[in-house]
């Protein structure tokens, strides 16, 4: 198996993550997002399917651009209510052994000293199965809820993220030596003080001095995910990210992004193979193509245009409620790295488009790519993406929870395995070892040099 | 049963919480504090013993006053390393149905908007079993790690806590109406926008404007714990606390504190019965008194004076390393509401004392009260405390994990039940309903009026 396909489920601690409206499907469990069993059942299912990870997106704030209020978002449940993602992980770790957990946390609002301890705690409790999706936020509503009039400028947010990472790198990698903890009951010595040190940081955004409160965890620094696609975001990913989540409408479009990402990594003194790239993907599979098409038609009948518009409006900063159906809409910025926006931003670069275009293109899986068919057809589609886009795997979006993933595990995974595209069992050890062969970051990663 | 005895286990996500040195006992599991099974086994044990809750203390920072460094603390494991307490709860909730979880979180360093969401998330996942122990911190090392030169003044920290609570009260109690969430799949409406509102706060320490990101959880505001014993802390407890954790050397000493607490609650327009008071207590039980005494002698042989001194030094701000054994030491302030300090502070009010006194009094359970004996003797001791101190129950300290609690559950609980002092099964519903009869705070609590 030259390059095994990696798979994450792409989820969020909310009722409606994307494909808004699907929560109301009679078989969807999404309305139970706030119950432990939703998540423990999901985790067990994913481990049965040998998924590498569960990727938990998050957003702080509410989508209040459309119509100038949160009305449409609230009615449709478009990422509101949204609970904390990190607290789902210990319960899912308790019912699994290998599944990794990618957790989104926002460097614009968290405190590095406390966030570092939380990730270390999770890395201990999960025995090294934790990844961190580093985000900087994109909503003014979050800034206001945190006591600021507006969010910081886009590039400033990334400068702040750089500074934040320096602090947590120091805490994770440089406060406790590998041999600091003895746990020696006979000698009655827990740690060796000469092998633990305060770290200090005096950066433009963060200043601190202190010991890391946690002893070294299996991975120390969690596996680092990132999803920025701007010029500044790309540089950040090249420097720091181990796994990158991209959105692309087509394999060719994705391939361009992947090439830029790998170039950015090389630019930062890292290697092509230091990056694993996951493409966002929706899959609908049936035992036959006809069954899959029926499923799509059924799912599509639940799509809620108001929820979709509320989400798009916040992601682009444009209030579509003020546009007539056929009025041209100007250039659209994709602030949120939202797969649903890909085709719109592409189109807006090419020329005028209207709200009617937007609504016409609303479908299952947003405007991100959708692969549909029988198990062989789906395997063909995924294999084509792998080959043409130079990606390492997929983040599979939530459609009808958990039916769509159950279908995938039952129908598609065995075909991928038969073709030699997918593993037949988990590797041993922490998540980073499963993904990259080593539990610790390589010396060429900036975390190792942050001390 | 006039006033049933309430029981919490008093724990911390660390190797050595108190009675430093006991982690090295051959039967202690404390060195596995960073593994899920330590906590899930504990939770199952406590639920078997019908405990009301597991109280998770926490401290940010490290004990670096003794000898001017963290050496003694690190060697002995005295509350370092210390992991995040909140992340233990989902895994324990997953293996229990009724046990409550009291989680310490520090208002000096957390962000109210984010902390509110974390507690709401937990209250959902646990179906209403969460309590929050509100603390303000007492270590300069924590302040430095958070980018401040020193911590704020004692009373300022409580003023800030008041302001913090106003923000989270608004989010928890006043952003979403009881009937805001419909979950109506047929109508495809998740929430009613007209029943959800932004809250705003413009206080001396915190300013914000926003919707709460979480829909109403079973308790909304988690059950509020507090443990302050200063004049300012007492006023804070009277205004806000539902459960208070006190330390007292004797029932008479505890009774004085309880009287002051209940007076503070009345002063704040609340009622005596709005407070449940838990006294810190160490228990060593054997099938006979002799067996219990042998156990104490065995445990005591593990006590680590250096760890105890490191802990005391940080709690009092006095560097005992600079004192000769028989040199008089001046007045001691109990900054940390540390039960181990009770006798010392009492003594220092009465006159001179020395490091020799301190070391001589080091024993199992710190200098807090210890009840030792056969099951009947232990039940007698607990009953006497209940009657004389006007308390509602106990926070049982960690001695040898989990042997000491296992002994308690197996030997003491049945005797308490036979005497009609302790419940024979859990009540239904959320933690607040089990403790106070209602899942929601009463109208007279300030959280209900914060809107």
Structural account:
2 copies of one chain form a homodimer. With 451 residues, chain A is an alpha/beta fold. Chain A has one domain (6-181, 188-314, 364-449): TIM Barrel (Alpha-Beta Barrel). Chain A has helices at 36-48, 71-76, 89-94, 112-125, 140-145, 154-174, 231-240, 251-267, 289-300, 305-316, 342-350, 355-360, 375-389, 403-418, 431-436, and strands at 6-12, 53-57, 100-106, 130-135, 181-184, 189-191, 199-202, 207-210, 223-226, 243-246, 276-285, 328-329, 353-354, 370-373, 393-397. In chain A, the strands form 4 sheets. Chain A has an 8-stranded parallel barrel, surrounded by 5 helices. Chain A has a two-stranded antiparallel sheet with strand order 5-6. A two-stranded antiparallel ribbon of chain A has the order 7-8. In chain A, helix 7 packs across helix 8 (251-267) and helix 8 (251-267) crosses helix 13 (375-389). At the A-B interface, helix 2, helix 3, helix 4, helix 5 and strand 6 of A face helix 2, helix 3, helix 4, helix 5 and strand 6 of B.
- Compute the number of structural domains of chain A: 1
N- and C-termini, Cα separation of chain A = 38 Å
Assembly classification: homodimer
Q: What kind of sheet is the major sheet of chain A? A: 8 strands, parallel, barrel
Helix-residue proportion of chain A: 25-40%
CATH class of chain A: Alpha Beta
Secondary structure class of chain A reads alpha/beta
- Average predicted confidence as pLDDT of chain A: 93
CATH superfamily of chain A: Luciferase-like domain
């Amino acid at each position: 198996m030259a390059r095994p396909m990696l798979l994450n489920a792409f989820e969020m601690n909310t009722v409606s993550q994307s494909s808004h409206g699907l929560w109301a499907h009679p078989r969807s469990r999404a309305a139970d997002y706030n119950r432990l069993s939703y998540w423990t059942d999901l985790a067990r299912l994913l481990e049965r399917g040998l998924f590498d990870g569960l990727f938990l997106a998050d957003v702080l704030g509410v989508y209040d651009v459309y119509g100038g209020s949160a009305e449409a978002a609230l009615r449709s449940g478009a990422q509101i209510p949204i609970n904390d993602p990190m607290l789902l992980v210990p319960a899912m770790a308790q019912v699994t052994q290998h599944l990794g957990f990618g957790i989104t946390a926002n460097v614009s609002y968290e405190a590095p000293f406390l966030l570092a301890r939380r990730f270390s705690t999770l890395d201990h409790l999960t025995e090294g199965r934790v990844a961190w999706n580093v985000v900087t936020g994109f909503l003014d509503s979050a800034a206001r809820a945190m006591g600021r009039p507006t969010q910081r400028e886009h590039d400033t947010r990334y400068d702040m993220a750089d500074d934040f990472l320096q602090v947590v790198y120091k805490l994770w990698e440089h406060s406790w030596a590998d041999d600091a903890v003895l746990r020696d009951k006979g000698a009655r010595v827990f740690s060796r003080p000469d092998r633990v040190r305060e770290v200090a940081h005096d950066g433009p955004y963060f200043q601190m001095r202190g010991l890391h409160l946690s002893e070294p965890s299996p991975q120390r620094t969690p596996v680092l995910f990132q999803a920025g696609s701007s010029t500044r975001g790309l540089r950040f990913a090249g420097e720091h990210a181990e796994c990158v989540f991209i959105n692309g409408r087509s394999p060719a479009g994705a391939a361009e992004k992947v090439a830029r990402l790998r170039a950015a990594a090389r630019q930062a003194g890292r290697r092509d193979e230091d990056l694993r790239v996951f493409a966002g993907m929706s899959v609908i599979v049936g035992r036959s193509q006809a069954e899959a098409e029926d499923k799509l038609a059924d799912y599509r009948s639940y799509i809620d245009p108001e929820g979709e518009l509320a989400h798009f409006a916040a992601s682009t900063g444009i209030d579509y409620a003020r546009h007539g159906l056929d009025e041209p809409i100007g250039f659209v910025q994709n602030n949120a790295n939202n797969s649903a926006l890909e085709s719109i931003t592409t189109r807006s670069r090419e020329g005028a488009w209207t709200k009617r275009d937007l609504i016409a293109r609303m479908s299952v899986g947003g405007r991100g790519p959708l692969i549909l068919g029988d198990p062989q057809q789906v395997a063909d589609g995924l294999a084509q993406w792998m080959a043409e886009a130079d990606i390492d795997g997929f983040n599979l979006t939530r459609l009808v929870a958990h039916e769509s993933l159950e279908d995938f595990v039952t129908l598609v995974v065995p075909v991928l395995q038969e073709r030699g595209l997918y593993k037949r069992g988990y590797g041993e050890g922490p998540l980073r070892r499963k993904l990259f062969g080593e539990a610790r970051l390589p010396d060429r990663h900036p975390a190792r040099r942050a001390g």
